[in-house]
Amino acid sequence: MKAIFYLLAYVTGWSWSGLQNNQVVLPGGQTCQNTATSRHCWGEYSIETNYYTTAPSTGHTVEVWLSVQEGMCSQDGYRRPCMTFNGTMPGPTITANWGDELVVHVTNNLQSNGTSVHWHGIRQQHNVQNDGVPGVTQCPIAPGDTFTYRFQATQYGTSWYHSHFSLQYAEGLFGPLVIHGPATADYDEDLGTLFLQDWSHTTSYRDWTAKAKYGITKPQQNLLINGTNTFDCPARENNEPIDSHCVGGGRKFEAVFEAGKRYRLRLINVAVDSQFQFSIDGHNLTVIANDFVPLHPYETASVLINVAQRYDVIVEANAVPGDYWLRAGWVKACIGVANDHPDDSTGIIRYNADSQATPMSISRVKPPVACLDEPFDQLVPYVPLDVTNITGTTVEDINVLLTGASFFQWTINSSSFMLDWEHPTLMRISNGENSFPPQFNVVNVDKQSLNPKTNEWAVLVIENKAVALLGSIAHPIHLHGHDFWLLAQSPTTWDGTTAGWQTVNPPRRDTAVLPAFGHLVVAFQLDNPGAWLVHCHIAWHAGQGLALQFVENQGDIAFSTVERQQFDETCHKWDAWWATAPFPQEDSGI
Question: Mind listing the domains of the chain with CATH numbers?
């Protein structure tokens, strides 16, 4: 009953066969504009630009204020306590252009919880102190305190921001992050983000108690699309609701298409533990990006999207005008516990804004029989980057076990991941410490060459042999601070060799599925000094310790004076509040 993570020392070499110029030059020497017929353009840059080494610097700053607060939510007509950014769930959309600077002031207005905000998929190049992980890159933000995050939009595409403190994102603390840039296919209109979410009618902390003790979570009560859905409230004979929290008023998500137009949808899975199969009856999807990576477009009837993943798709309004179901089908193969309403995660696409008809369309997609990502050979990055010259021979085994203690835990090398909010990893590093508590699950990765231009890589092989109470479970694995190159992903056991690894322009992303009973092989370049979390994005599993952290190029991690001042002030305020906090730390901290 174990999952084995092998860290294979280093890989050198990065070859890029894409175009070397960063401009799309028109007759007369003018650069082209991003329009409905030229989405590949972005001023002096284009979809051909290698965004890992080159990005615009616009000189423009996007400044945002977020208030983390408690409230009551009735997203589907069932009223329950929740947490929100600025009083809404999802939180406000943060929008920027490729190359902008983002400055986000986060104020914690919770009564009895710390918090933090993670910018999912943002690499934070040489900027680890803004990654937003309590116990790793900062102390939690104490109630009443404000923390300011600053980072450059060196990537473009679709993502989300969310609390990384305990189970808070499951309570509603998440929002969309859109960075505009070029695209690999043309479209007429950007419809924005579409959140896919499971939803419980009790708080995640109550659900956590059952999961932590017994390893089994109770079913989620509903599935939401962009934070909304309907729920059938049971009633007595006099039509009064049996449950006073069932107040009604839920609604289906709706969007209106104009015949002949092409629409961009930005799909984001923010579930606690659910994979979705997204489709629109009567329409095909053209996939143009996964996570923050532009893809060679491919057409499909549906897209499989696991926890924390994103897909950008284009939908052409070419069906017979009418009303169609938009579906976020719950994938049973990914979790052993059913959802109470697995077939009700639907929205509506209308061709007539005045229509109120219930769609009569029928789905033509078949649900998957296994919990997997989109087909490996479909996810072809548009900017081709290879991993070459794999020379590492050092192997480190990291075992994940399920223990039968009073609390159900995942452990790595017999150590369940547990952070110290008062003494985060970056504090220890900045104080000159070179060793860490075993429960921090630190793996050191450092460049071996003294030549800064030499490309070196870490390769992580993960075998999933962990068997939970309901059988082996797939895990969506997320790496902070990097995209990773997917060298292999298979529902079978690794044979111990590198045979079959795809090193020529393999899929790239920041979150990928480790299949049940299978293995996942990922590579990332050692070019971003920091302490970077690697974890399962199923909220229960992260809380139960299914995580480790890479301390990368430790000698090159540095703070500016201003950054260190904010870091220290945040920790001082947290220490003062935590000394009289009304609760102990009951999970891993992330």
Answer: 2-15+384-558 (2.60.40.420), 190-233+244-382 (2.60.40.420)
